[in-house]
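As noted in the main text, all predictions were made from sequence alone. Below is one such record, for Integrase catalytic domain-containing protein.
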Amino acid sequence: MCRTKLVDFTDKTDIKDILKKSIQTFINGCEICQQCKYERHPIKIAMNLTPTASKAIDTFTFGVSTFFTIIDSFSKYAQEYQITSLSGTEIANNMILFFSHHGIPTRIIADNGIEFKNTVVAELLSLHKIKLHFISPNHPDSNGVVERFHSTITEHLRLLNTEGFQKAPIKMKMLYAILA
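Prediction:
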């Protein structure tokens, strides 16, 4: 009999709503709760409203080859350039190549690598009025867009090494990995 009444009660009334309202009423009437309560003003994260506004950059090594990667934070469009060294000149030249095809962004997000913290890259970005934002050290997730891209590319390159692409040059494998 009691079991039937309980089932009837839960079918007719949403217990969660009743409990929520009861707790809310109790807290709103509690003097200590009201004194300890504070207004929260969460930090507003800057949103990318246009595809050219923000880019994420990093370097990526697979085997003995190193690549400079640029990803649009809005559209997730990615581009890679094979590089022979991590010099500021080579990074800046590849940035200019990318900008000539895809436009100049207003902001670039990078890790704290020496390839991005040098006078050549700083002067190039200053010349084009691009703000460079360095992520927090030891927190690669802060540049998650590019880190996710690197993990996807690594997975695709491993798959390409097992199929009929073993003898293909790394540049060709990278192009197929990006297409995938």
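The two ends are 63 Å apart (CA to CA). Residues 144-162 form the longest helix (19 residues). These features were considered when defining construct boundaries for the mutagenesis experiments described in Section 2.9.
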